[in-house]
Write a structure and sequence with these properties.
This protein is of the alpha+beta class. It has 2 domains: about 70 residues, Glutaredoxin (3-Layer(aba) Sandwich), CATH 3.40.30; about 140 residues, Glutathione S-transferase Yfyf (Class Pi), Chain A, domain 2, CATH 1.20.1050.10. The protein is built from 10 helices and 4 strands. It has a 4-stranded mixed β-sheet, covered by helices on one side. Helix 1 links the parallel strand 1 and strand 2. The longest helix is centred in the middle third of the chain and has 25 residues.
């Protein structure tokens, strides 16, 4: 029986797991749920009530990092480096990617234009740290695609939509980051991790929030 990835169309953490599954060629079923009306069967398998959940071997795994690590340990090719120090470094930057997602949520939830600009500046400062950590590419640690790349692919996907709203400068003046973003956008596993209508779904979500970004979009 194929694995089942319990999902939500906009969840970036689901996309991480989907990217790793695709990189490993693992067949699976993707089952979307409504997080605003979580079904009882989902709450029974997801103690935190969050996506993704991976159903495999009669077990339910939750938390995207755990799912990605499990897949990397059980299915070839390995995406984490064999060297323990490099592996730990990648895990550190995976956590950094999660922190960036929290900042992005703060950006699209900002209550006024001043707060929106402040969040944009904070995100840019974080990406300056990313820029300093990047090498020659095309991926985070060179020529090999890793789980850290699977983490940042969904991060950059937000900016594909933000860039159509206004120039917020969040990735300005960061050439290595721009090259990495382009390399990830061209990767089939990253492209296919979100539905084709993801941009429209995200725009609808952002407009409904009634935050400063929503006002900018409506204007």
């Amino acid at each position: 029986m194929n694995m089942v990835l319990v999902s939500h169309p906009l969840c970036p953490y689901v996309q991480r797991a989907a990217i790793v599954l695709a990189e490993k060629g693992v067949p699976y079923e993707r089952r979307n749920i409504d997080l605003a009306a979580k079904p009882d069967w989902f709450l029974a398998i997801s103690p935190l009530g969050k996506t993704p959940v991976l159903l495999t071997g009669g077990a339910a795994l939750f938390e995207s990092a755990v799912i990605c690590e499990y897949l990397d340990e059980t299915h070839a090719p390995r995406l984490h480096p064999s060297d323990a120090l490099l592996r730990a470094q990648q895990r550190s930057w995976m956590e950094f990617g999660s922190a960036l997602l929290s900042l992005i949520a703060g950006f699209y939830s900002a209550v006024d234009q001043q707060a929106l600009a402040a969040k944009a500046a904070e995100i840019h400062a974080r990406f300056e740290q990313v820029e300093a950590a990047l090498g020659e590419g095309p991926y985070f640690m060179g020529g090999q695609f890793g789980i850290v790349d699977a983490v940042f692919g969904p991060v950059f996907r937000y900016f594909d939509v933000f860039d159509t709203i206004a120039d917020f400068g969040m990735l300005a003046g960061l050439p290595r980051t721009a090259a990495w973003r382009a390399a990830l956008a061209a990767r089939p596993s990253v492209r296919q991790a979100a539905q084709a209508n993801y941009p429209d779904l995200l725009r609808t979500f952002l407009l409904k929030r009634g935050a400063a970004l929503s006002v900018r979009m409506a204007g």
